[in-house]
Predict the structure of Glutathione-dependent formaldehyde dehydrogenase.
Amino acid sequence: MLAMDYRGPKRVRAVQKPMPEIKHPQDAIVRVLRTCICGSDLHLYNGNVPDTRVGSTFGHEFVGEIVEIGADVTKVKVGDRVLVPFNIACGECHFCRQGMFGNCHESNTESTAVGAIFGYSHTAGGYNGGQAEYARVPYANVGPTIIPPDMDLDDAVLLTDVIPTGYQAAEMAGIQTGDTVVVFGAGPIGIVAARCAWLFGAGRVIIIDQEDYRLEFACNYSYCEAYNFKEMNDPVLFIKKITDWMGADCVIDAVGAEAAGNTMQTVTGRKLLLQAGSATALHWAINSVKKGGVVSIVGVYGPTDNLVPIGNMMNKGLTIRGNQTSVKRLLPRLIEHVQNGVLNPKALITHRIPLEDVADGYRMFSAKLDNCIKTVLMPPTANQ
């Protein structure tokens, strides 16, 4: 089968690989119909995630058709079209039973913090991902969710990560009616977080980024104010100034480890890897939220330490929340929002690229070429 293959930092290509096989009675094999390149994949692509092994196949956002099931799979059958949450969860451990499917204690033997994730290095379990014609899906009675017959596959594939993560970012921010919400990062997750902030009662939503085309997209998709931090002397001072010097009620960090905007953070976090990525956006979040406010983190950072103003956090009485998204917990509500027209996931898709050209897709998405917001990869077998 054709699959994406990681060859080292900034080097990926499409190659022929062996077909995935059933390895456990609860496995299923899925013929991939849509798969995406995520902003989180760029951390792998750039070589910033530990234990990302040559030969790995990335891809944690995919939908497809079940073509084979293990002996113990009862919740889906061959022929079902399913969306596959990016988390791999057993559904039975202490954390899964609490709805914390992103923190499954059984699926990832490599870590006690995060559960397993498709195609996201051996720190996230070492599973191959869905940027391929076929993918092996463990715990097939838990994760795969049958796509409603009236749902577009383009909508469905964005329910595997982007929409739930943006929604959970707003949920974790604890937004109260009339709150001012600031989102750092106008990538797909930040754009969805800004859109979902209104669903929780926000009275004002502001998004900050450095790419004008993304800010323009966010204005139209998320109905929010948008500002370019490159036009400010100090983003924290700017936010204080436009909030009557109080600060925002809630701030969402949808950037994570690859944040720009501070030379020291860039050098120590992105160039020298002395900390787990650049914490620039997190600094701005902590310093621009009001006293007693909430900072919600969905931007991805590495497993080691970061330099953050923890003293300011304590002195301001802040609440900081973050987690990998519990996709399975959120799916029923989000499917309903899509079916009722409250959310329009497929409007985020700006580019479709054949899987054969996956290297071009990564290069374009990484360099933000051609006003790219969200890229979908189309496997050759998708139209069979």
About this structure: The CA atoms of residues 30 and 66 lie 5 Å apart. The two ends are 14 Å apart (CA to CA).
